[in-house]
Amino acid sequence: MRRTPSTLANPTSTHAILARAKGELHMNTTPSVIVYSAEWCAYCKTEKQYLDKLGVSYTVKDIEKTPGAQDELAAKTGGKAQGIPVTDIAGEIVYGFDRARIDELLTAKGLLPEA
Question: Which is it for the CA torsion 28, 30, 33, 35, positive or negative?
Fold first, then answer.
């Protein structure tokens, strides 16, 4: 399924709904932020709400529903991830919901939207 920016901008579009059903919601076609999470994870939900509040574009990969997400996460972390959320911010890995580190990396990588 091809996702285009116009369909991704509308979270109620058929493509966005199908992506959510597969456990993967693309907020941007070329994400610099990927959140590895699961539906039941309270810290994951809190982190995604925080990123939404900041207006940061990101991709969610549900480690239980997105095919290959667990393997991808293991490859990126060298198998070190023992919990979620794990966030990839332009190649830098953040373990857990570490707000200070997330803020630091988003600022350093220029991923915060301009106010």
Answer: positive
